[in-house]
Amino acid sequence: MKTKLIFLSFLLLSFLQVKAQQCTPEITSPRLGTLFPEKIVFCNTETETLSTTQTYGTYQWYRQQWDWQTPNNNPWVAIPGATSQTLTINGNDDMLYYFKVEVTQNDCTAESTAVLADGYAYGLPFMMADFQPGTFEETAPGVYNVCDGASVQLNDGFPQLYGTHTWFKCLPGSNPPLPTDPCIIAGETGDSYTAVNSGTFGFYACTEYCPDQCEMLSDFAFITLNFGTFSFCSNLGTGETKPKENNLSVYPNPASQVIYIGKESDKKYPEVSIIDMSGKLILQKKDHQFSEAIDVSAIVPGTYFIVSKSAKGKVYKNKFIKK
């Protein structure tokens, strides 16, 4: 009798395990997890087929638009006609959407864990400039006077994504650039370039994951360097730079998690806005205290403007790089 009970218990446990497997749908695809867990990265001219690892009686696929905020308040929407075991998505229409599937089998109904069609391969390039302290002065947005004998290290701020680069010393005449474009700096194909002469610098780069997917740095993101002998060059190497009245302290910059902005004398800023290079408002804080951290961890890597308004009505403008 004891042996029979053990055998029946084993059968029941096996039945429950099989039933649990049937009621736990999992999504799979060729690129799922290739770069990041629970994410699919594919190139913009390609498609990707999602499927479940088991078969079920019915299927309904859903998608939800990605949001930089947590929690994501965008609704899950049933995809019309998506009622088979597989779902084909593409880089033009489905980038930065989550996908999940609801299945039924006999008397069970269950949903899969969501997967994200990630925008990693679509991250736009941005440039960071490292100046030697005391050797430069910004005369206009993106325009700098630099002391003769100094150098400026220019870096692609997204080197993990981009591979082969084409660096320029002036604005190229076309996008993509012609191999004979006179603005090309011959032999410079890495993710950084050291400038020691005057010019307007930027780059064109192709992603390593999608070699045919290339991007040109926007014209307004190029940087103009004018090398010469200027009055402030007497401070060469001292670490001093000319202060600008319409700027605030932003640190750390570049940053990946949080930034601090402001000065103690202002105490509070009724409004702080982070704006991308196209002019789109990305993040805004009201009644910001100068000592409070601003969470930028969810912002896509790139270059941004920070516009801050003090309680006295003064407007400050800064550049900020999210890495």
UniProtKB/TrEMBL annotation:
<dbReference type="InterPro" id="IPR026444">
    <property type="entry name" value="Secre_tail"/>
</dbReference>
<dbReference type="GO" id="GO:0015995">
    <property type="term" value="P:chlorophyll biosynthetic process"/>
</dbReference>
<dbReference type="InterPro" id="IPR045006">
    <property type="entry name" value="CHLI-like"/>
</dbReference>
<feature type="domain" description="Secretion system C-terminal sorting">
    <location>
        <begin position="250"/>
        <end position="321"/>
    </location>
</feature>
<dbReference type="Pfam" id="PF18962">
    <property type="entry name" value="Por_Secre_tail"/>
</dbReference>
<feature type="signal peptide">
    <location>
        <begin position="1"/>
        <end position="20"/>
    </location>
</feature>
<protein>
    <submittedName>
        <fullName>Por secretion system C-terminal sorting domain-containing protein</fullName>
    </submittedName>
</protein>
<keyword id="KW-0732">Signal</keyword>
